[in-house]
Amino acid sequence: MRAAVLRGGTVRARVVDDPVPGPGQLLVRSLACGICASDLHFMDHPEAGAEDDSGMSTYDQDVDIIMGHEYCAEVVDQGPGTERRIPVGARVSSLPVLTTAAGRRIIGQNPESPGGFGEYFLLTEAMTRVVESDLPSRIVCVADAISVGWSAARRARITAREVPLVVGCGAIGLSVIATLRRLGVGPIVAADRVASRRETALAMGADAVVDPAETSPYRTWREVAGGPPGCVVFECVGLPGVLDSIIKGCERGTRIFSMGGPPEGERLTTLTAKRKGINVQFGGGPLPDHWDEAFEAVCTGGLDVTPMLGRTVGLDQVPEALEAARDAHGPTRIVVVP
Asked: What range(s) does the Alcohol dehydrogenase-like C-terminal domain occupy (predicted)?
């Protein structure tokens, strides 16, 4: 098969062996796969994979890795021991986790679990969900990105006396905004330095947007909140210094959900956090039930992700598209169609 292959820090399209489904696995054909910021973090910071003692995410620069974990695919074959509950030809997606004989592996972040930047890859049948929708595959594949913010917004359990502030309006920040709006939470304040992202935040459900380079988002939050409610901040940037700036600038008693997680690490002013009584919850991936909820919301059209979508590219254009994905002024999602 053809695939955009990561090796030694470089991605290029070439021919590799087709994956073979093992026990409980499905062989699927990639129909569409989004380029995520975590793909960039993975290829730029191999040390993060080296520090993952779970073995789920492993970047060995001397072997082939096929990235891509936000996908919509078509079932091509069924491995031994499968229940065969999903017919060949069905459109599917799943949490990006492959169960192997050696343990669980993140799809697209391990040599043993190739992802959607190739023509074919493998899924765990038990985790696979059928697409009950006529929506295009390039829309369906965004569901995994939505699930991250969806899970954070659900776990936050924002009360009527709290007003959220979303810092960073990339895919995760936008998914937080869309989910909060769907849950009936508001008003929602969103902050981003890029005008196009602020516009997309409004399209996804934000009530007020602010450029933090020009105006303090905490001042805007106070104006919008209009009283002494509690503040819940969703940090969705992933650059060093952002979480610490939130700790320094936010209200006392703020609850922070940190979804960014810069691979380089973060230095925090813990004394200020202690003095303000701040609670920081570090993100993690979506809970399985939340992934299913987000998947259904996207597939039914109940959550419109079209404002997030940019162009589609083929396998030969993946290296250039990865570079384009680094540009904050570009589209939230570039989609690979192998």
From this structure: 171-296
Asked: is 145-282 a CATH 2.160.20.80 domain? The reply is no
**Tell me: the pLDDT tens digits for 93-125?**
999 999 999 899 999 999 999 999 999 999 999
Cis peptide before 114 (omega within 30 of 0): no
Residue 61: its pLDDT value, please?
86
Query: 200-221: per-residue pLDDT in tens?
Result: 999 999 999 999 999 999 999 9
Note the pLDDT tens digit of each residue in 158-188.
999 999 999 999 999 999 999 999 999 989 9
* Bridge partners, residue 312, by sequence: 335
Q: Using H for helix, E for strand and C for coil, what is the string for 159-181?
A: CCCEEEEEECCCHHHHHHHHHHH
Q: Which residues contact 6 (CB under 8 A, 6 or more apart)?
A: 43, 64, 65, 66, 67
Domain 2-142+305-336 fold is Quinone Oxidoreductase; Chain A, domain 1 (3.90.180)
